[in-house]
Amino acid sequence: MxxxxxxxxxxxxxxxxxxxxxxxxxxxxxxxxxxxxxxFAGSLEQAFILLAKQNFDVVxxxxxxxxxxxxxxLKRFHRKFPHMPVVVNTGSxxxxxxxxxxxxxxxxxxxxxxxxxxxxxxxxYYAVERKKAEEELKGAYNKLQQTQTxxxxxxxxxxxxxxxxxxxxxxxxxxxxxxYGVEYLNTALKSTDEKVVLxxxxxxxxxxxxxxxxxGLLDFASLTNLKKEPENINILIDxxxxxxxxxxxxxxxxxxxxxxxxxxxxxxDCNRIKQVVVDLIVNALYAMSDGGCLVIRTYAKKFAEQDxxxxxxxxxxxxxxxxxxxVDFDDTGPGIKAEYLIKIFDPFFTTRRASGGIGLGLSIARxxxxxxGGVISLQNKQEGGAIARLIFKANKKGSL
Length: 400
Prior knowledge:
The protein is an alpha/beta fold. It is 48% helix and 19% strand. It has 3 domains: 7-138, Response regulator (Rossmann fold, 3-Layer(aba) Sandwich), CATH 3.40.50.2300; 148-221, Helix Hairpins; 229-393, 2-Layer Sandwich (Heat Shock Protein 90), CATH 3.30.565.
């Protein structure tokens, strides 16, 4: 069975006393426990240069060096190298300072002249293990926070969905009455008064806008009843493109298709995924209102390491090595502002409020993709423009 002392440690001693350096080095080299390779630095600046160029396992840090003194030495070191294990090496008159150093991030402290070789060796090895445990605990805590955020978001979405369904049905009938009333007044009055005509038209447009919001809420709340069948995503894209192409021509956007011919089938609710595809095309067109090019690309592959950046870190729906079908919507627009990227899938977030946007399109799209065990993601390209990506699990029962 291997001992923890079997691993060779590379130690950086930050110490401005040549005598102390020799004493410590002799302790390390003569110890029957552990194996060591040591280097020395008389100042923090020298230590930083060495740490930037070489790999060390642990640092033995004197708090009083040529260019810094006291706890500020440890603070400066941690700001520069927060993941490096540190054992503070203090003078006998600095015992309290050593204890304070533990609260500031040091893994251990030693009092000069009051320890033997074994204590020094044990302290260095234990510091490495303690730092490793701290990093793992910190990672677990961050993961717990992410999971908590995900659970809170999921609960919020459930609440919104439940409220949306109830409120939407209650509001839909009064809106229908308003629209019928406006149509009746238009027919009955046949007014030539410009103010009357404008007022009735404003009421009509406002009611239609509210009705659109209600429709979005109902869509958002009714995603549980999916009819999934093995489908050819290329056929669905062809259908969506035929719907949108006239709009592309009006705003001078070239729409290209690059569709892999032998794609595996994917098990989807065709109408719901078509809704997602149309929404992504429309969003791309909005970003290229002055013209541009949109390429819709489909391809199959094994989900790999380089694909993980497209997946929400909290998502567990896809695993490496799994067969997937990918749909990219690659545009030549201006891209998406960084501050918008983190909010873009939030319900009711929109940059098009002034033109009637309600901010449910992408939120609904993500909910639809989640319900299919898939992923939707958007990223900017370095050369400009953005790519929206859909990732589906390939259907194992057949391909085209």
